Each structure stands twice: as structure tokens, then as C-alpha cells.
Amino acid sequence: MAIQSKLVRFDLTMIVVSFVIGIGIFKTPSIIAAKAGTETVFYAAWIVGGIISVFGALTFAEIGARLPVAGGFYKIFSHCYNPVVAFMFNWALVIIYSGGAVAVALAGAEYIKPVLVPAGLQDVVSKKMIAFAVITILFILNYLGIKMGSRVQNLLSSIKILMILVFCLAIFGAHNNTAIVPHQTQSTTDALKALGVCLISIFFTFGGYQMTINLGADVKDPQRNIPRAIITGITIICALYLMINIAYCQALGFENFKGMELPAAELAKKFFGNAGFKITSVVIFISVLGFLNTSFISNPRVYHAMAEDKILPPLFKQVNARTQTQEFAISFFYGLTLLSLFFFEAFEQIVNYVTFIDCLTIAFAAGTIFILRKKMAGTSYSGFRMRFFPMIPLLFMAVLIVVCASVFIADRDAALIGIGIFIAGFPLYHLILFFTKPPALKGDHNP
Do 179 and 256 form a contact (C-beta atoms < 8 A)? Predict the structure, then answer.
């Protein structure tokens, strides 16, 4: 049974916002400031990252409009590339994103536990118990139905945007009392190298909007609403990111801001005094809830698409006729997430290897726009069509490859782990194919 379209443009826009705005914006800016070295490179990196992300949004807006199906991020690979390649990329993403969801949950638990847990009980066990509780509650809400999940998402995303705006607007009523540090300069070569390194963390912070195309079959009027929701969502995100980074630098002082472990907490403390820490904890925890909720909405759609291609058992595509929920698929993702809970201790562990395989996958996904346009040439397609083609997707893909190279140079072990996960998908694909084929066809190993 196909999944019925129930999400409207506002629902999808809020999902885009929460796909991107997770915990990164509250942790990575001070890291990026330290890598940038100067305020000029810092702002340049965020502006470049924002522009390239808009290019990516335009690219995936057209891809989503041209192929509006459940599990679209998987489908574009299987539709345009060999099925085994599609499986290898999505197998890597399934592993990475389940672990990433847990890492973000643990980071959120780290922030909220001082508010919820007495000082004497704030240990690793309490952190994992909070993460387990959050993951379980969101699983139950999404198990009840897709509209329930989207309503929760709308609420979480709206609160998150409001709280970031509060941080940003607070700078107009405050004075920078930080110490003045002598201005530092960089050579052009050093500045370009710093920019490349900064883009690693920036693309991690901007990543996620492309996964919106997994919901293509759940959206009302997808050819109009998918591109508009993606473009609106990424525009909101760019504006919020730029404002909060200005707030960080103006309120805390750029040199003092470099390398701060909790820049958002310092910002809140400056403006809200003793209550600042608790306010920041709540903001970050809400952001974590939104990120995790989008994971429960999106990832089961990938399983659905893979089951339709007979790569996964049919059980993964079964849908409850009343709630429109993929009950087994969402339960499987929940189980995989809980399993990952035992293997990750902190948010920082995912950044190094996630960025490499994520950027590589997104680059190949963006490349499907050329194949889709060629396949649909001469058809009556009337959906969204980006301007300045092919320069926009080519530039987007080129920057992603540069980021991959930067990760490989900066942390070769992390890159090799990502490559290893990707390659492991090849034998796993054929193993699954063997066990899911009817007995009479098991001698045929062709995809």
C-alpha cells in the first residue's frame, strides 16, 4: 500500500529547518573561529557555506520535484545508478545517521541533565538514561502516525527558531565588555587553507536538507511544495546562522570566542545572568528533540524504498492503513538507534567520519540531476527547474569534493573508516539479495 500524501508546505519547511538546525550551531562556531584564525575568514566561511548550501537546496529542489517518491534519497541512486551503488551509499548513511542521532541525543542529555538530575547523580549512566528516554518518547509519537510526528515537528521547530532569535536580538541591548586583543592577519595561502578546513565543520552544521526528498510520497502537491519548502527552509537557516554568529562575535569578542566549549551557554550567561545556563540547556535540548524527530520521520522512508526494490524484505514497506505509519521500519530504526547508544559517548566523535562519507554521498546524489534531466528530456515535465544550470550543481559538487579532500588530509583515519563502511555495503548487498530472492532464482546473481 502506498503512503498517502499528508504533509503540506509548512510541515515540510519546518522539517527542513530541523533536518539542518540540530546541535551543531551551538557547538561548531567556536571551533570554526579557532580554525579560521581571523574574523574575516570566519565570516567568509559561513557566507561561502551558506551560498553553496543554497546551491545545494536548488539542486535537490529540482531532484525532489522530478522524482517525488517515498525514500527519494535512495530512489535517486537506484533510478540513476546501479542498484548496488545505491545500496552501498544508503547502507553507509543508515549506519552513520543512526549513530549520529545517538551522538546528538547524548549531547542534548549532557546539556539538560544539570537541569533535571541532582549534582550527585550526573554521570554517564544518567546521561544515557536521558538519551534513551528521549529516543523512546519520539519513537512512540511517530509510531502513532505521520501527522502526529509532523505536528510535534512544527512545534519543536517553531520554538527553536524563536529561541535563536532571542539570542540574536539580545545583542542590540548589550555592550561588548570583552578584552581587546590585537588584530591578527593571515597570508592569502593561509587564509585559503583555513577556509577549506572551516568548511568541514560548516557543511556538517548545514547538512541535512537534502534528506527532505525522502518524504516525496508523503507531500501534498510535491512538485510545487518540495522545492518551495526546501528553498524557504534553507533561506531561514542561512539568516539564523548568520545572525547568531554575529551575536557570538559581537557579544563575546572574536578572540575570546575562539575554542569556547559552550559558546551558546556563554552568550546566554552574558545576557541572562544566572538563568543563562538553564535557558541555553533548554534551547539546545529542544534543538536535539527536533533533530531526532526528523530522523524518525525520514529514515523509515529509505527502508520503504529499499524494500520496494526488493533489497530489503517486504516487511519494511508495510504501512498501517489507519495511521500511515511504517510500523516495522520505524521500530527497526529505533532498535538500531538503541544499539548505537552503546557505541557512542559524545557528539564530537561523529563529526570526523560523518562529514567525509556524507559529502561524498551528497555529491553523487546531486549528480543525478544531470541524469534525470537527460531521461526526462522531451517529456511534459512542468515542475521546478533551477536557473543557471549546469553551473549551480557543478559548483556545489566541486565544493563537496574539496571538503572530502580536506577531511582526508586533516583526519585520514576517519576518512578510511567511512570508506570501509561504504565498501562493506558491496558484499552485504549480494548477501541480502541472495536471501531475499525466491529459491528458483538464487543461482542468478545479477542485480
Answer: yes
CA quadruple 29, 31, 35, 37: dihedral, nearest 10: 60
Distances (CA, A) of 97 to 207, 217, 409: 12, 21, 23
pLDDT band at 315 (very low <50, low <70, confident <90, very high): confident
pTM of the model: 0.75
pLDDT per residue over 140-149, tens digit each?
888 876 555 5
- Cα separation of 134 and 130, whole Å? 6
Q: Which of 255, 79, 289 is nearest to 163 (CA)?
A: 289
Distance CA 156, CA 306 (A): 29
Q: What is the pLDDT of residues 352-394, one digit of tens each?
A: 667 788 888 899 999 999 999 998 888 888 777 888 899 999 9
Distance CA 80, CA 127 (A): 43
Strand partners, 215: 70
pLDDT tens column, 162-220: 777 776 665 565 555 444 444 556 666 778 888 888 888 888 888 777 777 766 667 78
User: What's the CA gap between 28 and 287, in Å, rounded?
Assistant: 14
Q: How far from the centroid of its chain's Cα atoms is residue 350's Cα?
A: 12
Q: How many CA within 13 A on the CB side of residue 166?
A: 14
pLDDT tens digit sequence for 24-64: 788 788 888 988 888 889 999 999 988 898 888 888 888 88
Q: 364, 77 in Cβ contact below 8 A?
A: yes
Cis peptide before 313 (omega within 30 of 0): no
d(CA 206, CA 201): 9
